[in-house]
Amino acid sequence: MNYPDPSMLALADDIAAALADPHTAFAAHNSIDRPQPQSLAGGSAGIALLHTERAFAHSSRWSTAHAWLSGAAAGDLNGGSGSCLFFGVPALAFVTRAAAEGTGRYRRGLAQLDTATHQLTRVRLSAAHKRIDRGERPALAEFDLIRGLTGLGAYHLLHSPEHATTTAVLAYLVRLTDPLPDADGLPGWWTEHGPTGQSPADYPGGHGNFGMAHGITGPLALLALALRRGILVDRHREAIARICTWLDCWQQPHTHGPWWPRTITVAEARDGRCDQPGPLQPSWCYGTPGIARAQQLAALATGDTARQQTAETALLGCLTDPAQLSRIIDPSLCHGAAGLLHTTWRAASDAATPGLAGQLPPLTALLQARVQAGPHNVELLEGRTGAALALLTAATGTGPRSRWDSSLLLA
User: Fold this and answer.
1) Which of 36-64 are b and which e, b meaning 16 or more Cβ less than 10 Å from the residue's Cβ?
2) Which terminus of the chain, N or C, has fewer Cβ atoms within 10 Å?
């Protein structure tokens, strides 16, 4: 690809221009309900992140970023048990850190948000360890990236990698991989609920979740990223190996390369079989791209060249399979073209396998087509804000200066 790409920059600029005014942006894009400001996933905090990334390139844009950041911080901030990387105090701390690095401002506010995020993390860690002590299975929201301690750990690893809170999250994730008493062969992260929180009565036996957003590859990516930064806790490598062994057991063959199920039921686990007939949507959140990137990071951290080749082959396979690509029908980061492009961009930057970088131009064209076709919601994870951020990276060929993609555990 040739950098910079004017057409991609122009499309990202058009998206950002339509989101310049916090008072009109949601209404202009036909949002039925105005998202909560302090939501990174779907509110003002996420849009502030887009304008912050753009302001690193042009200082005149900091006023727009500040307007969105102020809107995200307006009102009572949620620092309760439901707050997480993508909502509440931690979400605002994540965005404010980026703005502080770019401007030298916001230091006092960031310090307050950071302190509150540390306190929240310690409370949630205490609850998680007590749950393990009782021999109970976790909820996805205890440990996952979007709502749980993996997401909080992503914030701490970025903001203060050597802090005791960071290592405490890593130590918890190591313990999460330990089988519980009377586990019947199921891993420590097995949940008794369904993938979307269905009760045990509706989802007998619970499930094992493989996805980056809600499953065990999120913790794997965080453990790997920490190890690559030299942040190591007791049994750290053992935990990575345990997760990778689980993934190896459930790796499935395909003419376009290996893939993994999104979830498995207790019946599948006991029978050692996968009922999912084949690879589904090649998404960051649940599909082969996110799972492959987590394994590539683990391989890079541990020097496992065979695993790196398998992960990169899996990613390349889904990118060259028309049947899988046809399932990408929207521009989103979560499960659409932006997430596919940016995951591939990060993986290609580290790849030993030839071919991944060559997929970036067609993936960029796919994202452009999906943006132009809509839908036109403005969210970070499921809308045009995330698409604009992915376009900026693809257009310039440089990693995000705001490090926004650390919220996806891609880097």
Assistant:
1) bbbbbbbbbbbbbbbbbbbbbeeeebbeb
2) N
Q: What are phi and psi of 90, to 5 degrees?
A: -60, -35
C-alpha dist (Å) from residue 85 to 35, 81, 198, 332: 16, 12, 23, 19
Rounded to two decimals, what is the model's pTM? 0.97
- Bridge partners (DSSP) of residue 209 are 263
Whole-angstrom distance, CA of residue 347 vs CA of residue 354: 11
Residue pair 170/221 in contact (Cβ under 8 Å)? The answer is no
Q: Which residues of the chain have pLDDT under 70?
A: 1, 27-35, 375
**Which SS3 state, helix, strand or coil, does residue 3 take?**
coil
Q: Are 333 and 339 in contact (CB under 8 A)?
A: yes
What is the C-alpha separation between 229 and 156, in angstroms, rounded?
13
Q: Which among 73, 76, 61 has a CA at the least distance from the CA of 19?
A: 61
Residues 6+ apart with CB under 8 A from 50: 16, 19, 380, 385, 388, 389
Alpha carbons 178 and 47: distance in angstroms, whole number = 38
Give me the amino acid identity at 91. Answer: A
| DSSP for 215-243, written as a single string | STHHHHHHHHHHHHTT---TTHHHHHHHH
CA distance 411 to 403: 8
Q: Report the SS3 class of residue 411.
A: coil
For 333-382, what is each residue's pLDDT tens digit?
999 999 999 999 999 999 998 899 999 999 999 999 999 997 678 999 99
Per-residue pLDDT tens for 285-323?
Answer: 999 999 999 999 999 999 999 999 999 999 999 999 999
